[in-house]
């Protein structure tokens, strides 16, 4: 579970919670706000700081509020035994984005995993006289949590091509493994990032990490913004062209998708251009890139 820390400063020490038997779900009653803003609002109430333990934004990011083991200030009559989770938005009138809903499900499962003593998931209005979290809040779905990979309807995913697996669900993280083309893998959970791309938590050999849906179902390399040709610097720009050539049925030599635009890749580009009645120059520019994308749809 990727939980972001805003390094909030509290006005005084926070007491430990004596027991934990429930999660209470809230909405912020504000269409757009951040964990820092909620923290500021609660400080202005004379509280020690944000009353919730977690804050879930519409983009699917999850933020730490109060430390999870501390007494909250989010539900009168329920603070002594519960963990409070607040969702950005006003769910008396809005529909929750898919990314936020998925993050909420995963967070509920994460909290229950840390506290097996939890027996109830509650709405704020179950504890206190309030309309929170709103009639449009998808309570049943979030309270159910995220199913484990073993019981999920889609417990496995198949790699259509060799896919990089990352330490965290972000393309900038370190690679830990590679999923092999044509192989199926089970996944444990799903993370939906701010760009709404799904990331699956998989185990490949002895490594556990995240693979994106985009990489599984399409080219794992970003389309070049420059013309790629023989002798240009090796890297992902060349791999993009090689991946598309291979998928389109063109032999690029024994080295395969290695990021090096050598004679075999050059010859494959020219054969492809000739077949598509393009200018035969061995250069992967805009027209050739468009044709390659069409060829592998």
Q: Would you mind describing this structure in some detail?
A:
The protein is of the alpha/beta class. The protein folds into 3 domains: 3-143, Peptidoglycan recognition protein-like (Lysozyme-like); 156-217, SH3 Domains (SH3 type barrels, Roll); 236-295, Orthogonal Bundle (Muramoyl-pentapeptide Carboxypeptidase, domain 1), CATH 1.10.101.10. 26% of the residues lie in helices and 20% in strands. It has helices at residues 35-44, 98-114, 124-127, 139-143, 213-217, 236-247, 263-275, 286-295, and strands at 3-4, 22-27, 54-56, 62-64, 82-87, 120-123, 156-158, 163-166, 175-179, 184-192, 198-204, 207-212. The strands form 3 sheets. Strands 1-4-3-5-2-6 form a 6-stranded mixed beta sheet. A 4-stranded antiparallel beta sheet has the order 7-10-11-12. A hairpin with a 2-residue loop joins strand 11 and strand 12 (207-212). Helix 6 crosses helix 8. The longest helix is centred in the middle third of the chain and has 17 residues, at 98-114. The radius of gyration is 25 Å and the shape is elongated. It starts with a strand and ends with a helix. The relative contact order is 0.10.
Mean pLDDT: 87
Q: How do the strands of the widest beta sheet line up side by side? A: 1-4-3-5-2-6
Pick out the low-confidence regions: 147-154
Oligomeric state: single chain
CATH superfamily membership of the largest domain = Peptidoglycan recognition protein-like
Spatial shape: elongated
Classify the fold: give the CATH topology of the largest domain: Lysozyme-like
Determine the strand fraction and express it as a percent band: 15-25%
What's the number of extended β-strand segments? 12
Class by helix and strand content? alpha/beta
Task: Give the topology string: H per helix, E per strand.
Answer: EEHEEEHEHHEEEEEEHHHH
Cα end-to-end separation: 34 Å
Main beta-sheet strand count, sense and barrel state: 6 strands, mixed
**What is the CATH top level name of the largest domain?**
Alpha Beta
